[in-house]
């Protein structure tokens, strides 16, 4: 969907007047350069490390959601999300051969 189509859809659903003016509509420079293959490798590596760290925190949040769930259906939903997040984290680590994050960032911090 283009920015204009997204903006129209949001206006129809929420009555918002200026979606594109209030968000970064369209692809960011990072995404455009990544798609074009012109993003520096160091930038990609830094992104992968940060994203891996974010995914670890998100996984912990879903694990907590499963723990606090009151129904089996809610536990299962949290477990499915957690499994997908852990798969994405593993993908980041497998990219290590191409400059991705190492497994050492998955170890608990001593700080």
What key attributes describe this structure?
0% strand, 2 domains, 68% helix, 111 residues, mainly alpha
General description of the model:
This protein has five helices and no strands. Helices cover 68% and strands 0% of the residues. It folds into two domains: 1-39, no CATH class; 40-111, no CATH class. It is elongated. The termini are far apart. The protein has helices at residues 3-14, 19-22, 29-36, 41-68, 72-94. It has 111 residues and is mainly alpha-helical. InterPro entries: Haem_Oase-like_multi-hlx (IPR016084), Thiaminase-2/PQQC (IPR004305). Residues 30-96 form the Thiaminase-2/PQQC domain. This is Thiaminase-2/PQQC domain-containing protein.
Largest sheet: none
Report how far apart the termini are. 43 Å
Shape: elongated
* DSSP strand count: 0
Fraction in helix: 55-70%
In total, the number of domains comes to 2
Proportion of β residues? under 5%
Q: If you average the pLDDT, what whole number results?
A: 76
Total helical segments: 5
| Class by alpha and beta content | mainly alpha
Order of helices and strands: HHHHH
Question: What are the low-pLDDT stretches, counting only 5+ consecutive residues below 50?
Answer: none
Radius of gyration, Cα only, in angstroms? 18 Å
Protein name: Thiaminase-2/PQQC domain-containing protein
Domain Thiaminase-2/PQQC: 30-96
Pfam family, one: TENA_THI-4
Organism: Rhizobium sullae (Rhizobium hedysari)
């Amino acid at each position: 969907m283009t920015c204009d189509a997204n903006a129209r859809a949001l206006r129809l659903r929420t009555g918002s007047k200026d979606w594109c003016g209030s968000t970064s509509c369209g692809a960011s420079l990072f995404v455009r350069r990544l798609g074009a293959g012109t993003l520096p490798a160091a930038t990609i590596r830094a992104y992968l490390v940060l994203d891996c760290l974010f995914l670890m925190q998100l996984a912990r949040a879903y694990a907590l959601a499963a723990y606090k769930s009151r129904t089996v259906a809610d536990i299962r939903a949290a477990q499915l999300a957690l499994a997908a997040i852990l798969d994405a984290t593993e993908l980041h680590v497998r990219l290590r051969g191409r400059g991705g994050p190492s497994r050492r960032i998955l170890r608990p911090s001593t700080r």
